[in-house]
Amino acid sequence: MSKQIVQIVKIGGNVINNEEALNSFLKDFSEISEPKILVHGGGRKATEVSSAMGLEPKMINGRRVTDEATVEVVTMVYAGLLNKKITAKLQSFGCNAMGLSGADANCILAHKRIVKDIDYGFAGDVDAINSEIIDVLLQNKVTPVFCAITHDKNGQLLNTNADTIASEVAIGMSKLYTTELNFVFELKGVLESIDDKDSVITAINSEKYEQLVAAGIIADGMLPKMHNCFNALQKGVSKVKIGDASLVKNSTKLYTTLSL
Ligand SMILES: Nc1ncnc2c1ncn2[C@@H]1O[C@H](COP(=O)(O)OP(=O)(O)O)[C@@H](O)[C@H]1O
Ligand SMILES: CC(=O)N[C@@H](CCC(=O)OP(=O)(O)O)C(=O)O
């Protein structure tokens, strides 16, 4: 018997910061009939709040350098304000959402990110997804809403790229379901030219990806996003798409599909 489909949708910080776009996206998301999981970022809001508090935001290769003060700010912004706001909005659209960090029910276990020559501070890389507990929620028609905060089981919270969380949750759930992963952001897809918002590259495989990186066409936050897309495909996720909010409504043919 074929496995049931679960839709994993990741929403980025630029859409979250636009109240109208966020409401419209969440309404469409709540209408997805299959079991679904939402993962949200909020990097833009965290940058605003950090700056207002006199902390200088620093990103390297699309990831935030997270010192002790910053991990407190991002926990307040991601696991507090944004996670609860999104959950409440989903409830208003009739979607029984439950907002979670990776520490809740040990859903997402991570370790401090160690990369040669770069100290990212309290940034996390994911080790394990508690797919059994997530499945209990799905079986009870509860929609998990994950923010970008994980933990290390020693009491340390870790700031974790939300694209990575989406991809790891999709991989983890692939044991039990056929998983489809959708990255929703403010553009229509991966663009050939960042100045031409309609120049969507509709299909990218691993070879094309390497060419696009070498040519500098894929940069900044798109680097970890694409890396996560291919990681997901290699580890059992069935479909990966990148596009704007119309992706969840199935109302557009213009988006990027990834393949190995
Ligand atoms: N070729 C490209 N196509 C689209 N976006 C790109 C490309 N290269 C770099 N980017 C940048 O990547 C950003 C998306 O990454 P990020 O900000 O991390 O997304 P999200 O909003 O999902 O968190 C885009 O806003 C854009 O500025
Ligand atoms: C370690 C790291 O980079 N964490 C990210 C988590 C939030 C995120 O990914 O938000 P977007 O999806 O809106 O970019 C950050 O703090 O920016």
UniProtKB/TrEMBL annotation:
- The site annotation (Transition state stabilizer) covers K10, K225
Annotated compartments: Cytoplasm
Q: In which pathway does it act?
A: Amino-acid biosynthesis; L-arginine biosynthesis; N(2)-acetyl-L-ornithine from L-glutamate: step 2/4
Which controlled-vocabulary keywords does the entry list? Amino-acid biosynthesis, Arginine biosynthesis, ATP-binding, Cytoplasm, Kinase, Nucleotide-binding, Transferase
Keyword Kinase in annotation = yes
Quote a single Gene Ontology cellular component term. Answer: cytoplasm
Spell out the molecular function terms from Gene Ontology: acetylglutamate kinase activity; ATP binding
Question: Which residues belong to any copy of the Aspartate/glutamate/uridylate kinase domain?
Answer: 7-243
Which InterPro entries does the record match to this protein?
Answer: AceGlu_kinase-like_sf (IPR036393), AcgluKinase_fam (IPR004662), ArgB (IPR037528), Asp/Glu/Uridylate_kinase (IPR001048)
The entry's substrate-binding residues are: G42, G43, R64, N159
Recorded catalytic reaction(s): these are: N-acetyl-L-glutamate + ATP = N-acetyl-L-glutamyl 5-phosphate + ADP
GO BP annotations listed:
L-arginine biosynthetic process via ornithine
Q: Which Pfam families match?
A: AA_kinase (PF00696)
Q: What is its main location?
A: cytoplasm
Disulfide bond in keyword set: no
- What are the EC numbers? 2.7.2.8
The UniProt function text for this chain reads:
Catalyzes the ATP-dependent phosphorylation of N-acetyl-L-glutamate.
Q: Which family does it belong to?
A: Belongs to the acetylglutamate kinase family. ArgB subfamily.
Protein name as it appears in the record: Acetylglutamate kinase
* Species per Swiss-Prot/TrEMBL record: Lutibacter agarilyticus
